[in-house]
Amino acid sequence: MDTDRTVNTFIDFYRDRGHRQLTGDTLIPPPGDPVLFTTSGMHPLTPYLEGRPHPGGTRLVNLQRCLRTTDLDEVGDGTHLTVFEMLGSWSLGDYDGPQSLRWGYELLRDGFGIHPDRLHTTVFGGDGQVGPDTESLRTWGDLGVPVELTTEDNWWSNGPTGPCGPDSEIFVWTGEGPPPQQSTPTTDPRWVEVWNHVTMRYHRHPDGSLVPLDRPSVDTGMGLERLVTLLQGKRSVYECDVFEPWMRTVPDLWDDLDEPSLRLVCDHLRSGIVVVGDGVLPSNSGRGYVLRRLLRRVLTVLWRDDPSRTLSDLPDELLEHTRQHFRQQGQQGGVGSVRSVRSVLLDEEQRFTGLLERGRTVLSRQGFSGRVGTGPLTGDEYDYLHGTHGLPRELVDTLLREGS
Ligand code: ATP
Ligand code: MG
Ligand code: MG
Ligand code: MG
């Protein structure tokens, strides 16, 4: 099943059950939101999960692009991307958690053809403050799907205060043959999490207390690239159709990249293109700094083996494919055109080239070049190079490594 059909199957399933489809937002949360980027499908819906009436009604479905800076260390494995898409469904004070789980099960089995023997779930087992999620436990029992109880992994909140509650995660078996009897999601990484169903039952106040919400809501989120990867029988997101143009062109463009570098370059470049398409420019703070770090990491990896590599060689096809995939063509302001995205990438490349040249000169003049291979500099030395010469620590480390 390709990506488009996967999306349509999900949306149609929920529309048939009375859900209104929302247009996904950009990666930029509304003004006043303390978070830099949209991190989940529910993120833009927070006020409605706390009881504000939504103009679309009480049953909603959508596809939302997300960016998690917290996942950067995991990027490069088979399942975590920097920018990814989340399929989501919501009951705003409408149907309950068990209904959401039953529909989820039905869609995975009948809509996506996943054999129930390949499913495992986790459920909140309770902590000092809240008892176990018996509703979900009973529902999975009725459906005959194995459950593992956890404490830390199955409590959902979007921050220290606000709506929160127990969640139930659904995992799909990705190993060869049937899953062994004793194998569970927390003990065996061949179980891959695809979908999370959260029952928002509480509001957490700044003093830590939990107050039950008058009308609990249900929020679900499923990673599109992960689901598609499973449905296509692939081992990593980089092998599914979403990355086909990348995997076809990048290894020829910049040959001899090892697998981790290839993955990083594809993930970060694709993420950078989307972020620029949503109107962000590289800068030294906030969103712009996240973007700058993504692009500079790509360049650092590319130049490690061959300093003549340049983003000018990036085929238009990849920029266009990314824009289309994230539905950025018709976005207002024209910021997302292939030409303008390309020029932002190239400007940043030039700026980084200039900074590196200046950095090399400074390091050699100030006598730091001899420090290659002797470990990191002291805090004072980094402060001096940053404060007086504008060289951030990451860049200094890159230059010192380069000289080794
Ligand atoms: P994991 O435990 O694998 O890190 P999570 O529990 O942090 O996932 P959720 O917050 O529950 O993820 O998000 C809902 C779904 O979004 C996940 O079940 C997964 O399918 C998908 N997802 C989460 N993070 C990523 C990511 N970095 N890249 C791709 N898909 C993701
Ligand atoms: Mg995670
Ligand atoms: Mg998880
Ligand atoms: Mg989860």
Automatic annotation (TrEMBL):
<keyword id="KW-0067">ATP-binding</keyword>
<keyword id="KW-0648">Protein biosynthesis</keyword>
<keyword id="KW-0694">RNA-binding</keyword>
<keyword id="KW-0436">Ligase</keyword>
<feature type="domain" description="Alanyl-transfer RNA synthetases family profile">
    <location>
        <begin position="1"/>
        <end position="404"/>
    </location>
</feature>
<keyword id="KW-0820">tRNA-binding</keyword>
<dbReference type="InterPro" id="IPR018164">
    <property type="entry name" value="Ala-tRNA-synth_IIc_N"/>
</dbReference>
<dbReference type="InterPro" id="IPR002318">
    <property type="entry name" value="Ala-tRNA-lgiase_IIc"/>
</dbReference>
<dbReference type="GO" id="GO:0016874">
    <property type="term" value="F:ligase activity"/>
</dbReference>
<keyword id="KW-0030">Aminoacyl-tRNA synthetase</keyword>
<dbReference type="InterPro" id="IPR045864">
    <property type="entry name" value="aa-tRNA-synth_II/BPL/LPL"/>
</dbReference>
<comment type="similarity">
    <text>Belongs to the class-II aminoacyl-tRNA synthetase family.</text>
</comment>
<protein>
    <recommendedName>
        <fullName>alanine--tRNA ligase</fullName>
        <ecNumber>6.1.1.7</ecNumber>
    </recommendedName>
</protein>
<dbReference type="Pfam" id="PF01411">
    <property type="entry name" value="tRNA-synt_2c"/>
</dbReference>
<dbReference type="InterPro" id="IPR018162">
    <property type="entry name" value="Ala-tRNA-ligase_IIc_anticod-bd"/>
</dbReference>
<keyword id="KW-0547">Nucleotide-binding</keyword>
<dbReference type="InterPro" id="IPR018165">
    <property type="entry name" value="Ala-tRNA-synth_IIc_core"/>
</dbReference>
<dbReference type="InterPro" id="IPR050058">
    <property type="entry name" value="Ala-tRNA_ligase"/>
</dbReference>
